[in-house]
Please model this.
Amino acid sequence: MKLGDLEVNRLGFGAMRVLNDDIWGEPPDRPGAIRVLRRAHELGCNFVDTAESYGPQTDETLIAEALHPYPKGLVIATKCGISRPSPGRWDADGRPEKLRKDLEGSLKRLKLDRIDLYQLHTIDPKIPLEESLGVLADAQRAGKVRHIGVSNFNVKQLERARKVATVVSVQNRYSIDYRTSEDVLAHCEKVGIAFLPWYPLGDGSALRLARVRKLAEKKNATPAQIAIAWLLAKSPVMLPIPGTGKIPHLEENVAAAKLKLSKDDLAALD
Model:
């Protein structure tokens, strides 16, 4: 599928979970985290999503350690605009000086001259989104950012953002049991923007749905595979990025891309 002028496989890898439950500090098994990242690419995940706030800053360093020099065709996306003063805190910070600092740090940690997809992680209610997005647009004009994405935006906010910059993707929470961004997904389809569902398996609640478990048994698949296959079938602009810190779980998730759901299967899940 297309991300601006970039072509990526439809199942990406969300790198957040290679850290730990708090997404804070070093992973408990650093060599294991490196192996997961490398295995994801081996399995065909040529789109990797991360953020400055994961660690904070640790996740980007791990990606560079695992995959740099980057294989041809690998697309790395990262995000800016979140402050992490402590493990439990995810504070919006869209100040221009913060975003510029985030960008320079991400470029250095990822060992890149230009970030393929740079995303505003969320809207800071204290800063007009046009001011925050303007920093990303400036960075794009300076050649430090190839494409711009947004995260945790509604339709109205997305349209405001599109007046400031060319937006190629939206990353919102979305799964088979959490569909509050249905209107955003429909809008992305209408205007040709990729939709990246974060938390695509939820907190596990999606995997406990009776209809998901029933179809998994019928298809000789796992509930996670059904939930991911449903996302892929839901929309041609959908780019799921399930993440994990375990290779067996990673291999299970990636196998979902080969699972075909019929119209009857989809009707049963809806």
Summary: The chain is about 40% helix and 15% strand. The chain has a mean pLDDT of 97. The radius of gyration is 18 Å. The chain has one domain: 2-202+232-260.
